[in-house]
Amino acid sequence: MKSAVTxxxxxxxxxxxxxxxxxxxxxxxxxxxxxxxxxxxxxxxxSEGMQVAGVRITSRALTREEIAARAALGPPRxxxxxxxxxxxxxxxxxxxxxxxxxxxxxxxAREVIIKRVANVLGASHPAGMEDSDPLENRFDPYIKDxxxxxxxxxxxxYCQLIEFSGEILKQTKCLRTSPT
Length: 180
Description:
The protein is an alpha+beta fold. It is built from 8 helices and 10 strands.
């Protein structure tokens, strides 16, 4: 449906303004050379009386200055973007170690997370029926790791999908009504 949504918005001359998060320069600088996991959850996800907004795991000791600077930034924030629906789905939102020296981190796109959760974790196909496409399957270990992280009693995959679906529902409301 991503092409249909993008085309419909274009035909109606609508900017969907999907929210997207980018690292502040100070965070990018402090992460340089450090093995880390970063999941913004910048729209926040409500769970059991609390809101989860952002997960950052850095595999090195942070200086007091880095800790203070990150605290001063507050939780990750997303801002309206000029991306089409297709571009928004293709944008990276989860940064993890790749295990490769040449490219130490990989950023997984929203669409990859959605597809792999559906195919690997049994959301749309019974376990064991995964697609045998090696290009798609190379992300499976990352999705399984993400699913193993719990926030507020929920797997992070759940939190991530709730954030995606909330943003899609909010930004495409204008497409679900008849044009005037």
